[in-house]
Amino acid sequence: MGIKIEKKKIKEKKVRISHKKMDRIKGLACKECKREYPAEAKHVCEFCFGPLEVNYNYDAIKLTKEKIKNGPLSIWRYKELLPVETEDLVDLQAGFTPLIEAKNLAKILGLKKLWLKNDTVNPTFSFKDRVVSVALSKAREFGYKTVACASTGNLANSVAAHAANAGLEAFIFIPYDLERGKIINSAVYEPNLVGVKGSYDDVNRLCSEIASEYDWAFVNINIRPYYSEGSKTLGYETVEQLGWRTPDHVIIPVASGSMLTKIYKAFEEFKSLGLIKDNKVKISGAQAEGCSPIAAAFKSEKNIIKPVKPKTLAKSLAIGNPADGYYALKTVQKTGGFFEEVTDAEIVNGIKLLASSEGIFAETAGGVTIAVLKKLVDEGKIKPEEEIVAYITGIGLKTLEAVEGSVELPRIIDSTLKSFKQNVLKEVK
Ligand SMILES: *Cc1c(COP(=O)(O)O)cnc(C)c1O
Ligand SMILES: [Zn+2]
Q: Does the structure show a pLDDT above 50 at 408?
């Protein structure tokens, strides 16, 4: 590969931005013991090993609807609420994706109002572009030259693309047996792409070891507190696109659980900043049966998340030991939502139902979301009059193998009118 590898020694040279009293970003704080840290590339509390989160000074944030409306048509219209100070953004224009009213699907499911947040139209066709744009902007602000990630596929695509755009060196670690579409979609940006013999959880553990030896910005390890904030933009956009209010109920696909907690955080922030009057949203989480540690904990008495060995079609959600699982569970319980899981067959049906009713081709995670939505309606846990937003977080073109065997392939005919009439029209009728 011939690149110069920066070893850990130089770690401390990273610019330490000192924060003043009225600065928007105070630093980091432990989610458990609340101990505060400066805004550095750090993700775990030294005292209790709790996860660190960005600590904002909300009094210093003067955000109005007008100000947001005049911003760019991307996640960066909410920059005041993102943990990035530089103007030198790593930006492929992620976000501000359509919120589409799904009248056909609503009718089929027996719902009054259903919206789809269509994040398949992002620069690398998944919601991960939101988190990566924030993470790489921050990494560059910190002075890193090399970025890295452990990924179930979509994160790999997004880090590879944004690093190419930013001129950053990238090391991308994925399970070797991902879908072809996800592998090629990373390789084309020419990162250092590494296929690891193991599950995502094995890849992640390896990356923690690598991160302790090399001074790289691992977007979902040492940069994770900043990275994860990017998911809040899904919540902000939903509120803005609905005309400054929250829906009654949202359905969110869950892997690590980070996105789910951040969408809720976004609603709460908008409430506390006075941009919406109230937030009574119910948050429900969607998992695949072959990897549903959080849904299992939700349904058990004890609420303990037991790590699993994933075996599911929904590889983008195949995290057996979810980093934010506990917080995702708490969020769902606090808001009165549900966790539900669906089989591989239901996932495929979910993809096909969404595509045939609304014209949106989602990847397996979208199949999980739609199938869980259907299941919650069938179980009576979602009421017909509830206004729902379902998050469609990635595109189907990357996971073609999921539906390949269950769609009708073209009828092959000769290039004559006769052949068309004989072979096609006769059957169609
Ligand atoms: C990563 C991913 C998710 C889950 O995100 P978490 O924040 O890890 O829960 C959902 N959908 C798609 C398409 C993803 O790539
Ligand atoms: Zn702590």
A: yes
